[in-house]
Amino acid sequence: xxxxxxxxxxxxxxxxxxxxxxxxxxxxxxxxxxxxxxxxxxxxxxxxxxxxxxxxxxxxxxxxxxxxxxxxxxxxxxxxxxxxxxxxxxxxxxxxxxxxxxxxxxxxxxxxxxxxxxxxxxxxxxxxxxxx
Length: 132
Hints:
Blueprint lengths: L20 H23 L6 H24 L5 H22 L4 H25 L3
């Protein structure tokens, strides 16, 4: 007689955490691009070595993991902090790639800060204007 009390209403069932294809495909794509570009910068047109390949794989995997993690927590962050996170990730990636070309640490840091600030401004504008 009381069996109907345990039936859940339609649409209230808790769904398991699932990841869409885009939530992992985009970070993997960014990681592959960064890893390939890092390897090609270090290689300089010569023969590919194991150390260069390892650099590309590790740096690409690190960027992919950071992008995936940021994608998981971005909805819980306010627009300002989300923009800072995207700016730091982008600026750090660009600074890292520039440092591989043999430039000084100061030049790579300045370029990373400038491009990161540009991404911060663009991301903040996008997040602020599209908030619900």
